[in-house]
Amino acid sequence: MMVIETYRITADNIYNFDEKGFLMGFGHTMKRIMTQEALKSGRIKKSKQDGSHEFISILACISAIGKWIPLLLIYKGESGDLTSTWVDEVRTDSQAHFTVSSNGWSNNAIGLVWLQKVFECYTTPKHTTQKCLLIVDGHSSHVNIAFVNWADQHGIILLILPPHTTH
Length: 167
Prior knowledge:
Layout: E1 14-24, H1 36-41, E2 54-63, E3 68-76, H2 84-87, E4 97-101, H3 108-123, E5 132-136, H4 145-153, E6 156-160
Helix pairs in contact: 3-4
């Protein structure tokens, strides 16, 4: 016998979650000084960046009614510690969370911590008969056994889409 459970999911309990990476300082306009001959000859085809950029990514989540959850910013850092200059202008009312990974991207551990410490904190339904629907792409930091099990145990229904389709 198959048991089908039904839950009440309202628009305010439907969320989309994704990650976006940024190169900070990479978008500056480059200026070059060259002779008219070099420009006309087409010899100059590339430019070189000054190398002063850093990579961060953001875990962002918004509900179907436009309610956003505070961002999680992931900085690139080998030591695993936040550098004070990264957050020196952040106020306590900024409603943002911060962490570090070796490459500046999310990973299984960061995805699980986001689910437990950020998503759960801001999205717990008002009634026990309600569930949250969390739409995620197939990235491994969102689709791994620890993430799926924790979501299931806490009344979060996952809708897993193919990678790179939720942005």
